[in-house]
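anyone seen this seq b4? input:
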Amino acid sequence: MIHRYIMPFIRWWIRQLAELVSPRLLDFYLEAGEAAVLEIAGDTFALHVRRKGVLMRVGEGPWPELGHTLESLPNLPQLRLLRVPVGHVLRKGVSLPAAARRSLKTVLGFEIDRETPFEQGEVYWSHSLASATKDRLDIDLVVITRRAGDALVETARNAGFAAAALEIAHDNRRPTLIWLETPNLLRFYRPPPKTRPFMTMAYGLCALLVIAPFAVQQVRSILADRAIAALEPQARAASALNQAANRRMAALAFMGRPNREKGSALEILLAATRAIPDDSFLTSLGVQDGQVTMAGSSEAAAKLLNALAQSPAFREPVFDSAVVQSEADDFEKFTISAKLAAAGAP
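predicted toks r here
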């Protein structure tokens, strides 16, 4: 289960961290593991395995036999290094101020353009610190042209040896590696068998530490969604009550608001209900600019104009539209407009 779900994430995480680690630290770390080192000399090869810094030859012969040799060594380390022949390597000693340590890679990139016949983009390169004082840094710069390096890599790959880095050997000190790809530490470094159970526990703990905050956040989000869903009916009910209250307040404000020509809307409604006969009723009433519009139903709508004309509150009542007979009952639907008496006064 861990290898199926956790390990892919751990591998991706390690690859991201490896890009932030100094190449020098990566070299030291990988030395604790194992590496297969291929050396090409003309039409022959020599295959070595390095364990804990000790190089042991495991195969050699004519170049066409390299593929057969690789097949006969199924437990060959996953880390494959291609040793560059001495004739392909340009070595250069560079002395720099101690302050250059903070941006050493950038400074050395400029030094390649200045101190070698090549531009930085034309070569593979790396460096090692030969000595350092308070004021100066002595750097060993190693350079191989990309044309020569790519030719070696392609030749080895065609024979079944996919190199992750070029190796430049030195006398009496550790070799320099020029990485062709970002090192995958979980692939190249194999911990001792006795430590693998502890490594599995460590991977699981790391995954737990990384995943736990996201899991907690997800649980909180689920709980918040549930709380919101539980409160939603109450929120809808509160919104409906608020809207109803607003409508009531608007109606009360309208009914109590004084009209500049004739009192309040409530007084105008009272005058209209007193004027119309008992066989009639209103369904709506509006007042605007001294004009009253009322709609309703009546058993005899024609009598309403005369009734409203006799009221002291209204003048010149007229039908706004034709009287319509209701299909559901015997009532006639009407819409009448009239002027307020005060508004029509000279």
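The radius of gyration is 47 Å. The mean pLDDT is 79. kinda curious what u guys think
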